[in-house]
Specification:
Chain lengths: ~190, ~450
């Protein structure tokens, strides 16, 4: 417990050092390196002492330190100068009125149901790979439960980052093929 | 330190667009889930607030637990037999002994006698709102789980879309009433809750989407048997045998725990198929300074130890799966961790709220329609907590049987309709905030005098 406390203090202190470092115009790198090093070391110390529980505690302290710094920033924030209404951004060329419902529906279908199906298939592939490589059954099954939402989140983001529809379809098909193979592999075994 | 200079402008622009699209898609539901998640962190404490008169105790003797279980089963004679019987044992967060069967839940006195029925409808309502949005279980959990996956996507796109997000981590122009202030709040809260957001979204998504991934797993590898898919992780159910049998000896099981596992704090006794030949007993024990929700210690009907599931020291996957619940709900470090989770949850809710507000403000600056959107979003942001407070007041004033689900959703819908009719956005927001403060004060007074 003592080492978790020390690790937590180091993680919290590291956030304060980061604040100091980022405040400076010259971005004094030795200070930033020290801050990042202290953060990593603090969390490692907590991890070695109490495992995942220690990491959770030390990380929470670091986040609380960051939020406390924000609270100070709120307290010191100068009063508002510019009125929002004075700043205007030009409207998009189509006036912002064109909804392109067909295009949006296709994007939605790709990013939500299709990407979910593909992600589930990929997660099942991971399960098959863990099992084939001699991993414990529990590890293999938990890999599926964990990877399904993670891969879905990542795949959704990647699809939305693609400008061309063709690239989106190709990505979906490529990942689906990979996932399909994994599912087949699992069924055969 | 002049290596990588960040993503190029086109990538940043596309990431911002992706971030906005996902945020708009998840929007109101995401806010409701974050907001209720913040409140439900105190699930155990809310139960104590709801029923302050229930008997509390630091510990209960094994024989008293045995007597309590026998009394509850005796009270159900002539009714369909319960398939499971749970005894919640007194723990620091909820120092009460409560027996739950398929049809009832009662608190026990320290001597094992039945004290009173459990009345925690608001806590359960709140938990159900967070877990399923009061939709049918599988659909609701999957939707909430999907929102968790969307937070993952939002976190990634948010980091890519804001090249200076870490450099500006402490820069908060909090009192700027224009877009800059809103964006600063959104980005700063986002960066400082990033580890928390990733942890609770992934764990929440894992819990919520277990129906999808679990069924996928069962269909592909276990011939559709969902129980078989989960058995390697959480242990399997025993073989049922419905032939009548005498009462199981849970006192013996608890005594065994005291003698052989003195560092483990029993939190639950679970009797599977009580008073049948297939019955068996599980004791769920808490392990200090661990993220796991507990370890399952298995006993036969006579209270003889059979082994444990392995959640505390088995395969890594078992330990990870058992850690998901506590990591999500902040149940691993007593009240200090719960308070920290409430702070983080509040920040996450504010981030969700400001995300949509930024989008509306951008529309306003572009001269696009925004008035109704602003009021509707205010109805969600301030009306959501207000509807929750109204449900709490309904529980206080009407009792355990108050129609809480109807009060919440009808209240929220009514506020949305009022928001669309009421033309003065500023006055509408002020009115919502004022009534919210009034409701919170009334609720606090009610708690203090109860």
């Amino acid at each position: 417990m003592l080492w978790v406390m020390i690790g937590s203090v180091m993680a919290g202190g590291a956030v304060l050092l980061l604040r100091r470092g980022w405040e400076r115009v010259d971005r004094y790198w030795p200070l930033l390196a020290l801050a990042w090093g202290l953060l990593v070391l603090g969390i490692l110390l907590a991890a070695v002492a109490e495992g995942a529980w220690g990491v959770a505690i030390a990380s929470s302290i670091a986040m609380l330190a960051g939020l406390a710094c924000l609270a100070v920033a709120v307290w010191r924030a100068p009063p508002d100068k510019a009125r929002a209404a004075e700043r205007r951004t030009p409207a998009p060329p189509d006036g912002g009125g064109a909804l392109h419902p067909g295009r949006r529906i296709v994007t939605f279908l790709m990013v939500v149901p299709l990407a979910l199906i593909v992600s589930t298939a990929l997660a099942l592939t991971a399960r098959a790979l863990v099992a084939i490589s001699g991993g414990a059954e529990a590890d293999a099954n938990v890999a599926t439960l964990f990877l399904t939402p993670l891969l879905w989140g990542i795949l959704s983001f990647l699809l939305l980052m693609m400008v061309r529809r063709r690239t989106q379809w190709l990505t979906l098909m490529a990942t689906a093929s990979l996932g399909g193979l994994g599912v087949l592999l699992g069924m055969v075994r | 330190m002049s290596g990588w200079r960040g993503f190029d402008k086109a990538t940043v622009r596309q990431a911002l667009s992706a971030h906005g699209a996902i945020g708009l898609l998840a929007g109101a539901l995401l806010y409701l889930v974050c907001m209720t998640g913040t409140v439900v962190v105190l699930y155990q404490e809310w139960q104590r607030v709801e029923q302050p008169g229930a008997p509390e105790m630091a510990a209960i003797a094994p024989d008293a637990v045995q007597r309590g279980m026998a009394a509850v089963l005796a009270s159900e004679k002539g009714k369909p037999p319960t398939t499971h019987l749970y005894v919640h044992l007194p723990v620091a967060g909820l120092p009460r002994t409560t027996v739950t069967t398929d049809t009832q839940a009662v608190h026990l006195r320290p001597d094992g006698g039945i004290a009173m029925p459990e009345e925690n409808s608001w806590s359960e309502f709140l938990l159900a709102l967070h877990y399923t949005l009061h939709l049918p279980s599988t659909i609701g959990m999957t939707i909430v789980g999907a929102l968790g996956a969307m937070i993952v996507a939002l976190a990634i796109s948010g980091v890519v879309a804001h090249p200076r997000i870490f450099r500006d981590a402490f820069r908060l122009r909090a009192r700027d009433t224009g877009g800059v202030g809103l964006a600063d709040w959104h980005n700063r809260l986002g960066v400082w809750t990033l580890p928390f957001a990733l942890a609770i979204s992934l764990t929440g998504a894992m819990i919520g989407m277990a129906a999808v991934s679990g069924y996928g797993l069962a269909a592909t590898f276990y011939k559709g048997d969902l129980g078989a898919a989960y058995a390697p992780i959480f242990g399997g159910e025993g073989k049922p045998d419905k032939a009548p049998a005498p009462m199981p000896d849970v006192a013996a099981a608890l005594r065994h725990m005291e003698r052989h596992f003195p560092d483990v704090e029993p939190a639950y006794v679970i009797v599977h198929d009580p008073q049948t030949a297939g019955q068996h007993v599980q004791v769920s024990g808490l392990h200090a300074r661990r993220l796991i929700y507990g370890e399952n210690y298995d006993f036969d009907a006579r209270g003889r130890y059979q082994g444990k599931t392995g959640l505390s020291d088995g395969a890594l996957g078992q330990q990870a799966a058992a850690s998901v619940y506590n990591l999500h709900f902040g149940n691993y470090g007593g009240l200090p961790v719960k308070i920290a989770y409430m702070v983080f949850g509040l920040a996450l809710s504010a981030m969700t709220a400001t995300g949509i507000s930024i989008w509306i403000a951008k529309r306003k600056r572009r001269g696009l329609g925004h008035a109704s959107l602003t009021r509707a979003w205010d109805a969600i942001v301030w009306g959501g907590p207000l509807a929750l407070v109204l449900s709490f007041l309904a529980r206080q004033w009407l009792g355990n049987g108050a129609p809480l689900v109807a009060v919440f959703w009808a209240g929220l819908l009514a506020l949305l309709v009022i928001g669309l009719i009421w033309q003065n956005a500023r006055l509408f927001r002020r009115a919502l905030q004022g009534v919210l403060v009034l409701g919170l004060s009334l609720g606090a007074v009610g708690v203090l005098i109860s």
